[in-house]
Design a protein that fits this description.
single chain, 7-stranded mixed beta sheet, alpha/beta, disordered N terminus, 6-stranded mixed beta sheet, about 300 residues, 9 helices, Metallo-beta-lactamase, Chain A, 15 strands
Length: about 300
């Protein structure tokens, strides 16, 4: 893995040239990459001001993923690095990513507040890598913003809608699992929005709907499905009330080698929600919008 990341660093100069030539502004574009065996998360979001956000860097990098990152102009650096929660298939490769020397155009990275996500081995490795790079870890709760501005006269925001402050760090109803306490973000440009669920289950979704940021769920079109679209000890994401409140029409699923849960499939299909999967084809797909027009699809969905 370190050799592969070293290769990426060695080709950063050529990628920088490509970035300058291909730079565009005024678009929000989300890339879902097949990380490792695919049952892992790595999302790159091109923001309308031409900065980049990376959400999760799972363990299990390979040359295919590296090539894709290079093709996207990743060598130009990123401004916003986000870890959703303490699991190997989400932040297990983030320490090596930071140790590789890639440019981080920021003084901090972003992570959920809460003891349940702050003491595992992958978080410890991430914290050590941040310390070596002089990066602070901004531990976020619902309501806080990473970005809260406008671009080209359109709303341009990235806001946490979970975990709630009252549900972390030992409250009487503290989340019991890292998944439930995932950092969940809403990314907005104009009247178009993405919900990034981390590994949030239906329990997290219902908590959001019952909480002070329930209105943030509405008017979204793209959902990164929580917990890979699979059953986790009878815990499922994509509660019907959550799908209906959001009104999403497109979904991204990082299931990889695992089959998408039949109940989740049924809920998505009943609402005519098109979905893409890292277990289909090369596992890579993208969606893009100018903030007002309908989302452009990089390829046909897995369904329908």
């Amino acid at each position: 893995m370190k050799k592969v990341l070293g290769l990426l660093c060695a080709t950063a100069a050529s990628a920088l040239v490509a970035t300058s030539a291909q730079a565009t502004t005024g678009f929000l574009k989300i890339h879902m990459l097949n990380a490792g065996d695919g049952r892992a998360d790595c999302f790159i979001i091109e923001l309308p001001d031409n900065t980049k956000m990376v959400v999760d860097v799972a363990d299990g990098w390979d040359t295919t993923l590296i090539s894709k990152l290079q093709a996207l102009g990743f060598g130009g650096g990123i401004k916003y690095l986000v870890g959703s929660h303490e699991h190997v298939d989400h932040i297990g490769g983030m320490d090596e990513f930071l140790n590789s020397g890639f440019t981080i155009n920021n003084t901090q990275i972003y992570y959920p507040k809460g003891a349940v996500n702050g003491d595992g081995p992958h978080y410890v490795n991430l914290a050590a890598a941040c310390n070596r790079r002089g990066l602070a870890i901004n531990k976020m709760v619902a309501g806080q913003y990473i970005i809260n501005t406008t671009f080209n006269g359109l709303a341009f925001k990235v806001r946490a809608i979970s975990p709630e402050n009252s549900l972390v760090d030992g409250g009487s109803d503290d989340w019991q699992t890292e998944n439930e306490a995932s950092l969940i973000l809403k990314v907005t440009y104009g009247n178009k929005s993405i919900l990034l669920q981390g590994d949030g289950y239906g329990s997290t979704e219902l908590s959001i709907l019952a909480g002070p940021y329930a209105r943030e769920v509405s008017a979204c079109q793209v959902l990164k499905v929580g917990h890979h679209g699979v059953n986790a000890n009878c815990a499922l994401s994509c509660r019907e009330a959550y799908l209906d409140a959001s009104g999403v029409s497109k979904a991204l699923i990082t299931n990889g080698y695992l089959g998408i849960d039949a109940t989740i499939k049924s809920r998505l299909q009943a609402r005519n929600i098109h979905y893409w999967s890292t277990g289909s084809g090369d596992g890579y797909s993208w969606l893009s919008t100018d903030g007002t027009s309908n989302w452009v699809e990089g390829e046909a969905p897995l369904w329908p």
